[in-house]
Amino acid sequence: MDNIEKVQIFIDGGNFHHLVLKLIKVKELNFDFDEFAKFLANNREITNLGKRFYVGTVREQLNNLKSKESMAEQIKFLARLRVVGWETKTSKLRLRDEKVIIDERTKNYKDILSKGIIYIEYQRFREKGIDVKIATDLLVGAIDNKYDTAILVSSDTDLIPAIDLIRRRFNKKIEYIGFSIINETDGDKDVRPSQAMISRTDIQRVLVKSDIEKFIQKTLI
User: Fold this and answer.
1) Domains of the chain listed by start with CATH number
2) What is the DSSP letter of 129?
3) What angle do CA 89, 93, 96 make, to 5 degrees?
């Protein structure tokens, strides 16, 4: 009997949210991640604790009802994943001050500069350490021979050093899942797979909107 290929699945939740779910206006609670995992495995064996989801935790903000609702929703979502055997790992979302310089890369930059505006400052939540957690688990899984192929749902190029080491030293395969989705409201923001990830992985699969829509649940369950 032929040996069945062993796989583990690593989903960067924040990356998946911004590249896919946000674009097609679907919440995590309405997406069937377990069926999605089976689709990605494609009849290969998902090993014990081989379904892994990583995300920054939503934090409640003072006098902000939406943040409270988002936090409750995320807690419910992660609990559902754990019930069906997912390993979930989180990190804190940190509020950071960011600055955008107005120059030729900015649309209508001449009009903006003419009004005396040379930069825009804003606050944004950023994940801290998710890429480190994914890289660590990828390496540990390779060292402990937990998988033949790691299926990576992330376009974060910070993972490339870990990918290179796993392929070179441990002779494991990395399968990159990228996305090609048209932004119907802004063509400049179409989602495309990462060419850097494509060039540094063994297997590449690019999913389109119709691939994703199969896993949308119409009602919460």
Assistant:
1) 6-213 (3.40.50.1010)
2) S
3) 155
